[in-house]
Amino acid sequence: MPQLAYVDGRLTPLRDAHVHVEDRGLQFADALYEVTAVLNGKMLDWPHHIARLRRNCAALFIDFAMSDAALTLQARRLIAVNGQADALLYLQLSRGTAKRDHGFPANPRPTLVMTVRRFDFHQRTAQQKTGVKVITVNDMRWRRVDMKTTGLLANVLAKQDARAAGAFEAWLVAPDNTVREGGSTNAYIVKAGRLITHPLSESILPGIARATLLRLAREAQIPIDERPFSLAEALAADEALLTSTTAPLLPVVRIDENAIGTGSPGPMASRLAALVSAEITAQTGWRP
């Protein structure tokens, strides 16, 4: 069976899927997206992804009329017909197609695209045991990265820098030398038993995996400080870690050329990874 995509109400072979050349997502990055983990055929944290999409639609004045129930039905249908038990569901919603003009078109009809591709989450189990390396780059993104838009060129360049350096991720550092987040992940350090991460603001994405991790940590009575931390603090931390939909949690054992802590995954990262794994199992039945 060929891989299928969803484009504005139709299922079509991925190789034939397309949007109009004047779609505003293509020409202006006037579009939002979500990436949802599918494990054991079930979508992880799906209601939270929908809620974030709705918030961002309101912030960008995109009138997305499809109901949550209908969107869920179409997403599940796409997952089922593609026959992938472990996968990533990608959803993209643009303002629609119109003559190229910066201002909003009158009464646009949003363009909804969804794809599913196989993803091996078991690879993360091995990475949790070894940890990963990150590099640091200057944060060159626009000021509203709290909205999950497709305007990701600065992130693309940061991720390419990481790839060229043999690193898993690039941490984005602000002009005041504070670490904000990664190119596609949220960032954390651990010091004296406390989990530290940048507070929610217009400078970071409110990650779904981030929210889950902080909830689980609080339930486990792990102290949390939501505050900016400097690169110097990160280099002197006992541990560091990152989270994302595709991670979902990985220890960071090296920043640039500096070993963090012992240079191996620490006890806090291992404890948090176990909590996250248990949550994934509870929601989907998937086990590492």
From TrEMBL:
Highest rank taxon of the organism: Bacteria
Pathway the protein acts in: Amino-acid biosynthesis; L-leucine biosynthesis; L-leucine from 3-methyl-2-oxobutanoate: step 4/4; Amino-acid biosynthesis; L-valine biosynthesis; L-valine from pyruvate: step 4/4; Amino-acid biosynthesis; L-isoleucine biosynthesis; L-isoleucine from 2-oxobutanoate: step 4/4
Record keywords: Amino-acid biosynthesis, Branched-chain amino acid biosynthesis, Pyridoxal phosphate
Cofactor(s) needed by this chain: pyridoxal 5'-phosphate
Annotated GO MF terms: branched-chain-amino-acid transaminase activity
EC top class, as a word: transferase
PROSITE patterns noted in UniProt: AA_TRANSFER_CLASS_4
GO BP terms in the entry: amino acid biosynthetic process; branched-chain amino acid biosynthetic process
EC number: 2.6.1.42
GO CC, any one term: cytosol
Catalytic activity line of the entry: L-isoleucine + 2-oxoglutarate = (S)-3-methyl-2-oxopentanoate + L-glutamate; L-valine + 2-oxoglutarate = 3-methyl-2-oxobutanoate + L-glutamate; L-leucine + 2-oxoglutarate = 4-methyl-2-oxopentanoate + L-glutamate
Pfam family, one: Aminotran_4
Family: Belongs to the class-IV pyridoxal-phosphate-dependent aminotransferase family.
Record-linked NCBIfam families: PRK06680.1
Function: Acts on leucine, isoleucine and valine.
Name of this protein: Probable branched-chain-amino-acid aminotransferase
Biological source species: Sandarakinorhabdus glacialis
Lineage of the organism: Bacteria, Pseudomonadati, Pseudomonadota, Alphaproteobacteria, Sphingomonadales
